[in-house]
């Protein structure tokens, strides 16, 4: 079975896209109505997910799947069928807006990356992240090959998808449990951040090498060019970051509304464009780097509030819903065993890779199990990687749909598993002195 959303359902004729007065809906009104549905559905689903103690992203992805060809197939409804010859398909509009959402989401992730925190967390977080990247990468690639998929580039990209860890989902669950400042909680949070950085590097290298391979034979000189472009981009981009404080200071003094936010968007988009055009890496790598650099300036607080409002009010909901609109569980067909196996590998490989590494670095067995389980959730980063692979033609729609199921399954499994390994009666025994932020504040003398 096909994805079911590349073209309108044949049972609906174009003239059926009409309002109550019988007049066909214009393309702009169709876009307006669809965005209204997407944003409202995403926020309501996110709120309902929070009420059952699940991350909001889980509800947003799930409702996207329900709105997509798996269940309701809203893009086949009469009011959303193309009513004007030559008009851009609604799915293409949603994809463009979702791409902006991806870029902004990764910029926010970079903005929230605490470099000082990462430097002080110690070797256990680094090696937990490393183990949580290496084992899922090779496990995913091996699974793909065992199911008859080519190692280049589908197998490698499936492994890349499994390297991700969701910082936001892990942090939210740990806060709900009241163990964010425990030794295990601090390690999970820092390792998840480091994991994302490693995952982005792996994604950038895989995409760059895949593009070189698909455009022709990959010989030593082609590989050298890929590496040189990658290194040159990062060198120039980081060096150019020295002038970002001056640029932002200039923008802050401009007598124009929201000049600071506009300047930040320009910086993020230029970094993203240059990453793909000059560096040969994913645009999200550039926006993430821009976020990290901007986050080191004194304008971070002001920028954070503005970008968060813009990103999470519209673009991120569109991104999460678009994932469901492109995923069709019915399209899996005979791939159900592959999807099930992929979910198992995603959970076991991440938990073992991170947990065993933590154990080798000095954690006891109980602490190591907690770290491993805390790293399971894939969340938005896994979706970003899978979506990019689909857009670039590195994976097929069946693999993409299976990847969405992996994100849903790991997102849903992480909170209850963390509650299982952090039982309430043990909370009072968890040491909170050894944390990233240092010991808890002492009461001031009166």
Any overview of this molecule?
The protein is globular and about 70 Å long. It has 17 helices and no strands. Mean pLDDT is 82; it is low at 1-16 and 428-446. Helices cover 68% and strands 0% of the residues. It is an all-alpha fold and 446 residues long. It has two domains: 25-86, no CATH class; 95-422, Na+/H+ antiporter like fold.
Topology:
Blueprint: H1 27-51, H2 56-67, H3 90-111, H4 115-120, H5 123-146, H6 151-162, H7 167-177, H8 183-214, H9 220-240, H10 244-252, H11 259-277, H12 283-294, H13 300-326, H14 336-360, H15 365-374, H16 379-391, H17 397-421
Main sheet makeup: none
**CATH class annotation of the largest domain:** Mainly Alpha
Mean residue pLDDT: 82
Distinct helical segment count: 17
| Residue share in β-strands | under 5%
Topology as a string of helices (H) and strands (E)? HHHHHHHHHHHHHHHHH
Helix content: 55-70%
DSSP E strands, number = 0
Radius of gyration, taken over Cα atoms and rounded to an integer in Å? 22 Å
Report the principal-axis shape. globular
Write a concise keyword list for the protein shown above.
446 residues; mainly alpha; Na+/H+ antiporter like fold; disordered C terminus
In short:
By secondary structure, the protein is mainly alpha-helical. The chain has helices at residues 27-51, 56-67, 90-111, 115-120, 123-146, 151-162, 167-177, 183-214, 220-240, 244-252, 259-277, 283-294, 300-326, 336-360, 365-374, 379-391, 397-421.
């Amino acid at each position: 079975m096909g994805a079911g959303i590349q073209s309108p359902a044949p049972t609906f004729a174009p003239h059926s896209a009409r309002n109550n007065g019988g007049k066909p809906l214009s393309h702009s009104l169709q876009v307006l109505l669809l965005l209204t549905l997407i944003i409202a559905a995403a926020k309501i689903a996110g709120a309902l997910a929070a009420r059952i103690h699940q991350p909001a992203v889980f509800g947003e992805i799930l409702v996207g799947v329900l709105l997509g060809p798996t269940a309701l197939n809203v893009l086949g409804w009469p009011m959303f069928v193309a009513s004007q010859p030559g008009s851009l398909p609604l799915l293409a509009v949603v994809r463009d807006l979702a791409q902006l959402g991806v870029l902004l989401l990764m910029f926010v992730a970079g903005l929230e990356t605490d470099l000082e925190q990462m430097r002080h967390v110690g070797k256990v977080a680094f090696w937990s992240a490393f183990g949580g990247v290496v084992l899922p990468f090779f496990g995913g690639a091996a699974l793909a090959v065992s199911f008859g998929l080519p190692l280049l580039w589908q197998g490698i990209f499936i492994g890349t998808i499994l390297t991700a860890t969701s910082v936001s989902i892990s942090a939210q669950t740990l806060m709900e449990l009241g163990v964010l400042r425990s030794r295990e909680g601090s390690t999970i949070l820092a390792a998840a951040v480091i994991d994302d950085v490693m995952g982005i590097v792996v994604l950038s290298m895989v995409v760059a090498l895949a593009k070189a391979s698909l455009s022709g034979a990959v010989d030593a000189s082609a590989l050298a060019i890929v590496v040189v472009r990658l290194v040159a981009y990062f060198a120039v981009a980081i060096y150019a970051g020295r002038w970002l404080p001056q640029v932002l200071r200039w923008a802050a003094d401009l007598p124009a509304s929201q000049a600071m936010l506009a300047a930040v968007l320009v910086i993020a988009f230029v970094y993203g464009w240059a990453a793909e055009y000059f560096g040969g890496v994913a645009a999200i790598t550039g926006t993430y780097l821009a976020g990290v650099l901007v986050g080191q300036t004194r304008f971070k607080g002001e920028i954070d509030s503005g970008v968060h409002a813009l990103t999470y009010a519209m673009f991120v909901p569109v991104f999460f819903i678009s994932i469901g609109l492109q995923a069709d569980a019915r399209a899996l067909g005979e791939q159900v065993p592959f999807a099930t196996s992929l979910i198992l590998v995603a959970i076991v490989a991440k938990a073992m890779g991170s947990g065993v590494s933590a154990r080798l670095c000095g954690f006891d067995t109980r602490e190591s199990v907690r770290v491993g389980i805390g790293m399971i959730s894939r969340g938005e980063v896994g979706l970003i990687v899978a979506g990019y692979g689909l857009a670039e033609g590195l994976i097929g729609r069946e693999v993409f749909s299976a990847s969405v199921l992996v994100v849903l399954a790991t997102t849903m499994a992480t909170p209850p598993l963390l509650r299982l390994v952090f039982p309430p009666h043990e909370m009072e025994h968890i040491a909170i002195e050894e944390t990233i932020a240092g010991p808890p504040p002492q009461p001031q003398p009166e």
